[in-house]
Write a structure and sequence with these properties.
By secondary structure, the protein is α+β, with helices and mostly antiparallel strands. Helix content is 37%, strand content 13%. It contains eight helices and five strands; from the N terminus they run ααββαββαβαααα. A five-stranded mixed sheet has the order 2-1-5-3-4, sandwiched between helices. α5 packs antiparallel against α8 and α6 (151-163) crosses α8. The longest helix has 17 residues, at 187-203. It starts with 13 loop residues before the first helix and ends with a helix. The model is unreliable at 1-11 and 21-35 (pLDDT under 50). Keywords: 2Fe-2S, Iron, Iron-sulfur, Metal-binding, Oxidoreductase. This is (2Fe-2S)-binding protein. GO terms for molecular function: 2 iron, 2 sulfur cluster binding; metal ion binding; oxidoreductase activity, acting on the aldehyde or oxo group of donors.
């Protein structure tokens, strides 16, 4: 049977058209994109530095850092705020605890990029001039700091513990402070400090 649409008189060769369609379908999509000069998005090399602005203790801090930098390393190594301590570096001891917004977080496991645009409060941001924050004063009054290495993280966590409403009993305080390890075993003193500071913190 003769293919009438393949007639040269109408300017359309059906067999040539079908061969062309089949041929183009066999070309892989990436190859087609290259052939057409398309620009595909490229992933950024994670080892290249990035610009980030962190708001720390009420001030904006512009940094040019490795995208994999944690909040803890940004604070200590780039901003010189060494109050937050690097203990286990695995989020288990709580020595690096800071407040991001109203939440307490272990800064060794939090990427600086993820904290951009949020308020970061460190131990350096608590006192007002020479006046200590009520929780800092309570730690002094109750000898709750012992060797002092875990103290910044303990104080930041204790403030959040109070604001979260978990300072109503000794058992609650112990439970909600259990993520912070004290190798000097000053736990009874820490519980006493949290109980002392709680009313003043709740007054605002």
């Amino acid at each position: 049977m003769r293919d009438k649409t393949g007639s040269r008189s109408v300017g359309f060769d059906r067999r040539a058209f079908m061969a062309g369609v089949a041929g183009s379908a066999l070309i892989p999509m990436p190859a087609r994109a290259v052939a057409e000069g398309a620009q595909s998005p490229t992933a950024q090399d994670p080892t290249l530095p990035v610009d980030v602005t962190l708001r720390v203790n009420g001030q904006d801090k512009r940094l040019h850092i490795d995208a994999r930098t944690t909040v803890l390393d940004a604070l200590r190594e780039h901003l010189g705020l060494t109050g937050s301590k690097k203990g286990c570096d695995h989020g288990q001891c709580g020595a690096c605890t800071v407040l991001i917004g109203e939440r307490r977080v272990v800064s060794c496991l939090t990427l600086a990029l993820a904290a951009e645009g949020q308020e970061i409060t460190t131990i350096e941001g608590l006192a007002t001039g020479d006046r200590l924050h009520p929780m800092q004063q309570a730690f002094v009054d109750n000898d709750a700091f012992q060797c002092g290495y875990c103290t910044p993280g303990q104080i930041m966590s204790a403030i959040a513990c109070v604001k979260e409403g978990h300072a109503g009993s000794d058992a609650d305080i112990r439970e909600y402070m259990s993520g912070n390890i004290c190798r000097c075993a000053a736990y009874p003193n820490i519980v006493a400090a949290v109980k002392q500071a709680a009313p003043e913190i709740m007054k605002g």
